[in-house]
Design brief:
It contains six helices and twelve strands. It has helices spanning about 5, 45-55, 80-90, 155-160, 180-195, 200-210, and strands at about 70-75, 95-105, 105-115, 115-120, 135-140, 145-150, 195-200, 260-265, 275, 285-290, 305-310, 320.
Amino acid sequence: MNLWQRLFGGKGCVPERKKIDGSPKASSRSTTNTQNIIQAKSPGKEEGKEELKTHANQPKPTAPKQSNYIEAKFPMTADQAKKVQQNCAKALGVPLTIDLDCGNGISLRLIFIPPGKFIMGSPYTEAGRDDDESPQHEVHITRPFYMGVYPITSKQYKEVTGKMGGCYGEDDPAGEIAWDNINEFCVKMTERTGRSVFLPTEAQWEYACRAGSTTRFSFGDDDDSLPLYGWFNDNITHPVGMKRPNPWGLYDMHGGIWEWCADWYGPYSNQSSKDPQGPTSGKFKVLRGGEFAVLYPEYCRSANRSWCAPNHLSDGFRVAVRLK
């Protein structure tokens, strides 16, 4: 984390992001200068195949029969969202939570996310929104999956990869991690556990974050409630899971640490889609969620988008696992 990041900040690692009215969005963390924004190199043929196989474009496995699915239908109250989550897992005969072994007694907990449809993006009337959150469009998440209850911690990242995940506490979210390096974590966890571990798509991330809600945050529209659910406007990281979870039991989806998604960053389509993977190429990867150092709650909204070069040592992540 560099001096610019500590002092000025912004959305992800691109300091020139603007509000709709043209004024800069302030934060206490972002990047140093454009020299740090390095364009992603086009992968070679074999490298591209590996990326396709792991988290950039997820595999399309044979899923349980569609008739077995109980789907989430947005909007839902928090209680309705929990019931759909529990009933769908029960109907499929799978546990609500799973724990994966990272090694040395360290585990990684994930929770079941049911399939369903939602409206991705934000309405023009939403306070603090950006133009890249429109047009709103319907997205169908057709397959259930498991999502990390917390962002990957420094302790988990070090145990799996043998590398430090930033200069944070061991139970703090791992940070200063390049998108390009997340592949190593996913591959090693897949080999260790026999489960398909991957980086969620932007659509999966927003769907899981919203958990049935259509409001600015998973808990409603009120900025004043954000401190109950996430860290922001702060100068240090904190251990994961210290705030309230969203209705599907996910912690730190609002604030805490920017989280990488699998997708290349690009404009939205106004067409409805099923399990979208994002653009096939690009210069920047998507970041979601906001972080501890952003000054304004609007950065932590469910629809908020940011981006960064995939080789930039900048942010954190949480993983997903598909059903067996």
